[in-house]
């Protein structure tokens, strides 16, 4: 069996394994929901926000790619397109959060909203109808953008219409702004409102940077696994991984910058309505802070400074795996202390939930990935970048059930 023939069976094996893991995880979550309903919803939110990073973060990278047309973007274009098409699936997985609002958000509980500055505005903003309405709007606009961009891209595979490239770029220009604003407010709604007295204008940007970082890490791991198969074996070079490594380094630094900036601003202001957020993450939660600082920034930062690391596919993939592990820990640190302030708490559901949702998401992602060619066939930017010259003609039809 040659590399081209091995692509489909390889993806099938991963998809089947992901479905098995996701199915077992769902059974575990059902048991957890029966015996500890509140803990189930809290763990589910943490896992959901982590997995959502891949779907929505891919949308941010996709619109950025269509704007800048870098060579790195064509290597991962079909990966992030498939990822964005899982957004409707993530909208479906949002339903359990709506069912557990009273177990998750204090502003939904019977004793009402806690009192503090700006509570008049927040009481109106954090109401059930507006919360649901905004969630519907977020998913609708993300889905519309994702399906439109991916439909145009795949139509170009069929008819080689160069005008579609311009249409994708024209939509991506406002798309960057739309993604930034909608994800910022979604971060406010779904994470920051866990502690409704607290506010931070940097928090939305931190969520966006974290999403892009998670998605880049996942794409690098996926390329490492698919690099031995066509079409990737026909055109992937060290340069592609070098560019992706530089991007990964950039967002590692941006994540650290956002975290430190937020801390310095709140620390210097020393206002009770702001600093309590960090006090909730003190106590035994401090044991997680140092590993996060070292593992999420210092280790990947110094590793990614090396040109040798970024140009070596296997080494870069290992760094990406390590970053994904740190991303899980960081999301856990952002969300769980809101339920257990100043006291470290880890439930078995906090382990089962991300494994379950991650398995289901991965299976859906691969299902979309197998449906079309794994690289853009007739995008003139890809041709000009030299990608078509290196990819052989049979390889362009990869993807098993490709419709190009």
Please describe the topology of this protein.
Blueprint: H1 3-35, H2 37-68, H3 71-84, H4 87-93, H5 95-99, H6 101-104, H7 119-125, H8 128-159, H9 163-190, H10 203-226, H11 232-235, H12 238-269, H13 272-279, H14 286-304, H15 307-311, H16 313-335, H17 348-369, H18 380-384, H19 387-390
Helix pairs in contact: 1-2, 1-17, 2-3, 2-9, 2-10, 2-16, 2-17, 3-10, 3-17, 8-9, 9-10, 10-12, 10-16, 12-14, 14-16
**Count of discrete domains:** 1
Average per-residue pLDDT, rounded, comes to: 89
Helix content: over 70%
Measure the end-to-end span: 23 Å
- Please give the number of β-strands: 0
List SSEs in N-to-C order: HHHHHHHHHHHHHHHHHHH
Class based on secondary structure composition and strand pairing? mainly alpha
How many distinct helices? 19
Name the beta content range. Answer: under 5%
